[in-house]
Amino acid sequence: MAYRLGVDVGGTFTDILLIDEESGATYRAKTSSTPEDQSVGVLRGIERACETAGITLGDIDEVFHGTTVATNAILEGKGARVGLVTTEGFRQVLQIARSFVPGGLAGWIIWPKPEPLAALEDTVEVRGRIAADGSVVTELDEDDVRAKLRHLSQQGIEALSISLINAYANPDHERRVGEIAAEELPDIPVSLSSSVLPELREYERTITTVVNAAVQPHVARYVANLDSKLTTAGIHGKLCILRSDGGLVSAGVAAAHPVNMLMSGPAGGVTGATWAAEQAGFDDFLTFDMGGTSTDVALVQGLKPRIGRETTVGDLKVRATSVDVRTVGAGGGSIAHVPQLTQALRVGPQSAGAAPGPASYAAGGTEPTVTDANVVLGYLPTQLAGGEITLDRDAAHAAVKSIADATGLESVEAAAAGIIDIVNENMLGALRLVSVQQGFDPRDFALVAFGGAGPLHANALGKLTGAWPVIIPPSPGVLNAYGDATTVMRDEAVRTLVRRFSELDDDSLKEILTELADDAKATLTSEGVPEDQQRMVYSADLRYHGQGFEIPVTIDIDAFDGSGGGIESLRKAFDAEHNQLFSFVLDAEHELVTVRATANGPRPDVTSIELEKGDEDPAASLRTTHPIWVDGGEVEANVYDRAQLKAGNVVRGPAIVTEMDSTTLILPGHSATVHPGGSLLIRPLDSNTEH
């Protein structure tokens, strides 16, 4: 028997999904995260999943892991002390940065500019210069390099980043500095910009390399620790880490280039949502992943997530390919509060996390959270995570009462409803960022809701966005782990060209793409993926000549078939994307800046779910009735056991559907149809929308 395991570590829960590759059977576990040592929660969850499946840990062949370790290191300011080596005259590249101030007019008055991850006193200049065309202007002064590296050693740096001017065009000087660093600073990890991001733009290349260096020691320790503990526990299968773009890399590659893992956790959810939507028959959809700490949203069109070239974490924006995910601090653990200055109710971004957690967890938390509000309104059962957490309704009521008292609302239920309304509006704002702001009407998309808290709020978000149906996948609370377990090995090769279209032809561009494809394939081949099973995807960053930014566009490699239509197909694709984003195109020459080739391994063959067929009546799965608070009053809701639902059953609201890892709320005036693939499809009762 062959088993693969998906692991997703969140701020509140750690999710495990074990898949039997032969039968397609899945076994899940959900356990509290252990922030002090995440591997503890991971191993505890794996043991529970294996116990449920009746196998030993030694039966696991592969472990696929989505992690927020790199993200948290940045957000919590726990990155390593980084030294930066740059070209003479460019010491303040990080301080100059880009001219950007968040917020509205006069935002600069109150915006504290974040400190660079490599301090000015830890930044040195070396003599030597490469031109933009890759030629050597000034030879590298190796004696100067050694002196500057010894200075950094005395500064007590923990990681080294090397970013020399125009290194993307010629990496020789950077590589030599790296070789000297290995001699002068033998125990310090080194990040080269020509390896991390061999692309145009000095600031973006430098900040991305510095971020890579800042999290590298932290990630390397975590990966090594997890790998060691898995081996000690008897798991000898291969450990792979999810990249920000939704692909997989080996643990060793992930530790060397952790900047590509900053969106590792959310990317797994988008992959899992794509699988669920495909099973339900929908190609275009929004994803809505609400966990305990935050909510991640994305847009998928034609079963392909939109991929961005920038990743934003806190105040940092780096150049790293990632699924275009937007995150807001809105989760089940988000804390509700009433600032004295405004006396207006606010929810988040502060979170109760896993410890102490919401007040209803009875683990020491006293502040009112979104979970507590759901408990007060009657939306949540008395137990979560398969019985690991028992909810204390009295504690939840007492916590939310503080909000009622502070706002003068007439009841605790009204305060709880206010908390839910505000957090829903916060999440609507994120969904609009990936849809309306990019030229898409959310009413043209379905909405896939998952995460431990997502199905509770999904119906309300469907009403706010007009996105129907709302799809609740099977095991929504562990869908991120499913995405981790069913994604593919991936690597990419990149080259910056900066050529106007008039300077290009199909043959020369295809030759470059072929060279990049060979480089990307080599990595996967070294990881044991046969070349004949690898699938290539090509893309380019394009702009109008004179424009100050680029837009990523997929390259149709089939158009480069010798007929001369390759460059023209790129022109049309860019104009269409530009029009989608900005509602206009220019009569200007096009320019290619960067091209990349991405190699993808084979998709795992996992058997799909197929439920037993039933009629519309879900009575066999009805467990009880329960009062809930909706639209300002109390109503009776039917409570159903999702495990007993059959294909074709129609659950009419108000209703609650419970399962081990999540709870789904169906509002009055709506119904959920059970799809043969296991998903619940929620629609308004007066709608026959089938898009």
Automatic annotation (TrEMBL):
The protein's name: 5-oxoprolinase (ATP-hydrolyzing)
Hydantoinase/oxoprolinase N-terminal domain mapped to chain residues: 4-184
Q: Name one GO cellular component term.
A: cytosol
Q: Which GO terms describe its biological process?
A: glutathione metabolic process
Q: What class of enzyme is it?
A: hydrolase
Occurrences of domain Hydantoinase A/oxoprolinase (ranges):
205-488
- UniProt keyword Mitochondrion, yes or no: no
**InterPro entries found in the cross-reference section:** ACX-like_C (IPR049517), ATPase_NBD (IPR043129), Hydant_A_N (IPR008040), Hydantoinase_A (IPR002821), Oxoprolinase-like (IPR045079)
Q: Sorted alphabetically, which keywords does the UniProt record give? A: Hydrolase
Which parts of the chain are coiled coil?
Answer: none
The Acetophenone carboxylase-like C-terminal domain covers 508-673
Question: GO molecular-function annotation terms?
Answer: 5-oxoprolinase (ATP-hydrolyzing) activity
What Pfam families does UniProt report for this protein, alphabetically?
Hydant_A_C, Hydant_A_N, Hydantoinase_A
Q: Organism, per UniProt? A: Intrasporangium calvum (strain ATCC 23552 / DSM 43043 / JCM 3097 / NBRC 12989 / NCIMB 10167 / NRRL B-3866 / 7 KIP)
EC number of the protein: 3.5.2.9
Q: Which domain of life is it from?
A: Bacteria
